[in-house]
Amino acid sequence: MKTSGKIFIAIFALCLIVTSAAFAQKAAKPFKGVITYSMSYSGTIDAATAAQQPKMMVVSVLGNITKTEINAGPVVIDMITNGDAKTATTLIDMMGQKKYYKMTTAEIDAKVAEAGTPDIKYTEETKVIAGYTCKKAEYTTKDAEGNATTTVIYYCEELGGVDANYGGQFTGLKGMPLEYEATQNGVITKISATEVKKGKVKDTDFLVPSDYTELTPEEKQQIIDQFSGKE
């Protein structure tokens, strides 16, 4: 065989390898669907107060875009985070009064910087939750006084990655959290996925409805302070 023929075969083989790798990458499509979580409470909370707390959380996922809905009785809160555009929008429906505010990339990054870089310890321990095999991670953060809080999370990389967690409670986590416990003022909230449904989400699900009114900068800051516990 002539040298030119050997070179052609080598190049053709290389192309096959590259093409095969490209198809393998395309096969892993971003998750698209709805995750339903149960919410339960323990610790320093009485039964009557616990009964008034939200019992369910619903997260719609479209790749790196998520919408988290929490129905707290008279108040329904939707939080839309776009991990591609690096923006976040919060919608508040308080007994028919519908308001929303947006946070820019700069505002989210400033909030994340203020919270500090979390220490995330990944382990090989696994647990099956809502039909998906999840891995365990220990997510440690520190408050302004330097007190550390460690949250045990079971996450699933098949349902999301770092970008899907952008600016959220578990910034930097490399998978979608399916089970974890959050502690605040002695109250322990356990959040665990009960169902994962593929499909049934579309781009328009992540838009602000036309009957919502944007908050003024002052109103926006007041709500952010309330959510962060500053008020």
How would you concisely characterize the structure shown here?
The chain has 231 residues and is of the alpha+beta class. It has helices at 3-27, 47-51, 105-115, 217-227; strands at residues 32-43, 56-62, 65-72, 75-82, 87-94, 97-103, 119-129, 132-142, 148-156, 176-184, 187-198, 213-214.
What attributes does this structure have?
globular; 45% strand; 231 residues; 23% helix; single chain; 4 helices; alpha+beta; twelve-stranded mixed β-sheet; 12 strands
Task: Please specify the SSE layout and strand pairing.
Blueprint: H1 3-27, E1 32-43, H2 47-51, E2 56-62, E3 65-72, E4 75-82, E5 87-94, E6 97-103, H3 105-115, E7 119-129, E8 132-142, E9 148-156, E10 176-184, E11 187-198, E12 213-214, H4 217-227
Parallel strand pairs: 6-12
Antiparallel strand pairs: 1-2, 1-11, 2-3, 3-4, 4-5, 5-6, 7-8, 8-9, 9-10, 10-11
